[in-house]
Amino acid sequence: MPTAMEIYKLLPKTNCGECKFPTCLAFAMQLANQKVALDACPHVSPEAKAALEESGAPPIRLVSFGSGDLAVKMGDETQLFRHDKTFYNPTVLGLVADDADGLDAMKAKIEEAHAMSFERVGQIMRVDSVALRHSTGSVDDFVEAVKTAAGRELPVVIMCDDAGLAAKAADACSDRKPLLYRATASNFDAMVAVAKEKSLPLVVGASTLEELTELADKAKKAGLNDLVLEPGTESLADMLVKMTAIRRAAVKNKFRPLGFPTIAILGPDMMNHMKAAMGVMKYSSALLMDDMPREMVYPLLALRQNIFTDPQVPIQVKAGLYSVGEPTDKSPVMFTTNFSLTYFTVRADIEKSKIPAWMLVVDTEGQSVMTAFAAGKLTPESVAKSIDDFQVKEKSSRNEIIIPGMVSRMSGKLAELTDMKVTVGPRESSGLPKMMKTLSS
Fold first, then answer.
1. 3-state SS class at 13
2. Angle 209-221/236-251 helices, nearest 10 degrees?
3. pLDDT, tens digit, for every residue of 265-297?
4. For residue 396, which of 57, 69, 235, 348 sits 20 to 30 Å off, Cα-Cα?
């Protein structure tokens, strides 16, 4: 974001007050702090507006494709390292279906991509897109596969170097806003024309960063703003170097010709699985893969989830009273915090006992038991309030609550506040099955 003085130089300096601020400098200071919109100034020139919007834009442009709830976003990143702030848009993972394998195989891959989803710590992780590639197969099969993919919910990538065929395929899924792949030096003008006519995002590819910069800049000057960059990467090391160079140039140096999301196309061999993991971390906005065995996809999705979780906002579950199995009013009650990993770990250990139970989840702003206890987020008072708020005594007539062994020090005060019997549980939830069998005997 430009400074207040840089903004002031571009303002009309009339001090008219129509922006609700007494002077243009005061307005510039508010604008620099992002507390007011530029549109509040009715006299700013189109040239100044364009310059300010360009300088105030994120270093990596936000580009999206697809439609509906499963549309994906790429770019809009502002950091080199997630601990500096956070990363925003998770790497898009897509499965490639090639027409060289025939129409039936392409349709099977479309269904495979659509069905590939997993649940982890309360979140659904899934493959995000399907890419249809025209290589040596039938043109009709290719277009038919695009139509089939358009009938599903996943965003579509059209992989075709022939601009005429790309336009035909784009028409077959126009309501899905596909991503066009790709413009190179040999077909640049034709592919740019298709992307402009259809108002679609376009991948620009080149073997060197210098050529990629030239093509991206040329596409932008031609009126295309939604670009995705594909640097040619021959090896894992080459991919790391080029992806890092693009991110650093955009974020640190504000180099606009490289300020776009990136994409990498990966083949089926094991080394490309390693490249996929590296791409999630450094710094591929999208990864399209010829092969996605489930035993590789799940850890890749888990890695992505970890990388793109805001480090300042832990994954949380909703506070409340949860049933494990089919508990009755005679079933035991225990509590834990609303940190997702803690919740799902404790719940799994309760389920191992095969004994129905009530599980009270206390809001600790997503912190684990000991962290919340040390920070004063998990106290006898907060637990007692949760017992009242979620009507624990109405659900269980045992008038007893099991507390984590790590916070045994709160047992006396909690008993005083709730008039309940407080039983200190094991320090680790892995000890719950044994303890619960003792309680039920």
1. coil
2. 40
3. 998 777 888 999 999 999 999 999 999 999 999
4. 348
Strand 320-324 to 357-362 pairing = antiparallel
| Omega prior to 88 cis, within 30 of 0 | no
Q: What is the DSSP letter of 48?
A: H
**C-alpha span between 96 and 292 (Å, rounded):** 9
Q: Interior CA angle at 394 toward 388 and 399, to 5°?
A: 85
pLDDT for position 34: 67
pTM above 0.85, yes or no: no
Question: Cβ(15)–Cβ(24) under 8 Å?
Answer: yes
- How far apart CA 337 and CA 110 sit, in angstroms, is 40
CATH numbers and ranges of domains, the chain: 4-56 (1.10.15.40), 63-307 (3.20.20.20), 320-440 (3.40.50.11600)
Q: What are phi and psi of 403, to 5 degrees?
A: -110, 155
Instruction: Give the residue among 71, 68, 262 at the shortest CA–CA distance from 155.
Output: 71
Question: Three-state secondary structure along 313-355?
Answer: CCCECCCEEEEECCCCCCCCEEEEECEHHHHHHHHHHHHHCCC
Beta strands at 92-98 and 286-289: parallel, antiparallel or unpaired: parallel
Alpha-carbon 197 to chain mean position: 30
Give the whole-angstrom CA distance, residue 57 versus residue 76.
Answer: 9
